[in-house]
Amino acid sequence: MNEDTIAAVATALGEGSIAVVRVSGAEAIGKVAPLFKSREDLREVQSHTVHYGWIKDPDSGDVLDEVLVTVMKGPRSFTTEDVVEISTHGGIVAVQSVLELLLRSGIRMAEPGEFTKRAFLNGRIDLAQAEAVIDLIRSKSSKAFQVARKQAEGALSKRLVPLKEQLIELLAHVEVNIDYPEHDVAEVTAGVIRDHCGAVLRQVETLLKTAAEGKILREGIVTAIVGRPNAGKSSLLNALVKENRAIVTDIPGTTRDIVEESVTLSGIPLRLLDTAGIRETEDIVERIGVERSRGALGDADLILLVLSRSDALHEEERRLLEELKDRPTIVILNKSDLAPCLEEGEVRSMYPSERVVSLSAKEGLGMEELERAVFKLFMSGGIESADATYVSNVRHISLLHAAARSLQDAIDGAEQGLPVDLIQIDIAAAWESLGEIVGDTASESLLDQIFSKFCLGK
Ligand SMILES: Nc1nc2c(c(=O)[nH]1)N(C=O)[C@@H](CNc1ccc(C(=O)N[C@@H](CCC(=O)O)C(=O)O)cc1)CN2
Ligand SMILES: Nc1nc2c(ncn2[C@@H]2O[C@H](COP(=O)(O)OP(=O)(O)OP(=O)(O)O)[C@@H](O)[C@H]2O)c(=O)[nH]1
Ligand SMILES: [Mg+2]
User: What gap in Å lies between CA 292 and CA 384, rounded to an integer?
Assistant: First the structure.
């Protein structure tokens, strides 16, 4: 248990109607009580109650602000320590002066993430849950928030506990075999190791399958809108974000630099990049734009290749269609409101039907079909079920991969008839990787690295 009592502003700095200063630690109540002028003495109030009064500097006698104070006594609090929250008036002046008074009274300024770190160190949540708290704060869509909230409640941790138990049991069994070979315990055969490690490996792989979708929910799909000049790329961006964000003209080569916007389709966040139309050009500025389009194309998770259905296919477009065939590409046949001229059969012979969408960006027709196509391409269907667990954290994903590798090594070793004490090393490594996700085996420097990503006051 930490000795010192910490404080920080828990709300965003800026003009708001109220701001909250949070205090946590054994002396939270004792240190705040003398600064709080009220009908009640904070030292005597019940836990989880709110009190009206003023924060007053006992030395100068100045009243700093009219406030509401909440008391939550440990262990039934966010940090499991005594917590006092002071709601001041919004804006930075009131909240800063209250915080300064607390710091003068022997309370220490919290480090970023220190409240959550204490909740972890005091055993109320595990490391994966603590990390989910950052994801909660950072989430940009309601789906991402849902995923993070489930994880903050311990969904991933619950999946890992039985896996770790199975490995520990196997390790114990192996241990007895090694230490007491004369003992009458059933020998751990290659078959036993293969079956047990195989069962755990399958579950680790199931979790890893959710990783791609989890990452998308968290970070958004980087989506490059590409095509020939005048195909209607900027019009498509505008139709997706439902405002006139990018300049649209009938002059080919209008967009020069990349225009970026965010939009959420069926709960999936997209980071849209409208790019300069790709063509050979003598114009220096346009050529730089085309190079940037190429760069965006290279980095994209999703490519929307826009073709004008009212024009015949251009050589450049044939090249793009060929080049992007094996990438996550959706071909947009734009200007569906005009008479068709494009060789649609040629496009459809190269791309499966669910990846070719006919629409009119200008008239806003066919946009739902595009939304469905994006959804189908990225979500294998599980996303709507609220109880799905997604692994979205890069650290968790790499540890799951490490565990999978160790398990595969153990299985291979068993099949090749390696000595049991060598196989034991792989099983132990897998167990440790899984433990590191929830923080059983986390080092101090890892904790520092994780918690320093938090904002102050969390
Ligand atoms: N004012 C305020 N609002 C807040 C928070 C906070 O700390 N303060 N939270 C901070 O993130 C979130 C709520 N999360 C919380 C999670 C656990 C506990 C807590 O006291 N847990 C106790 C059980 C309490 C009970 O059962 O009565 C526990 O787990 O022991 C409090 C807040 C969002 N809103
Ligand atoms: N009829 C019709 N016209 C469209 C449609 N989409 C775009 N246009 C027109 O096509 C022209 C070019 O549209 P933009 O959106 O600027 O095309 P772009 O691909 O961004 O062009 P660059 O920035 O030059 O590469 C404009 O005159 C648009 O009004 C559509 O669905 N139907
Ligand atoms: Mg444009």
Answer: 36
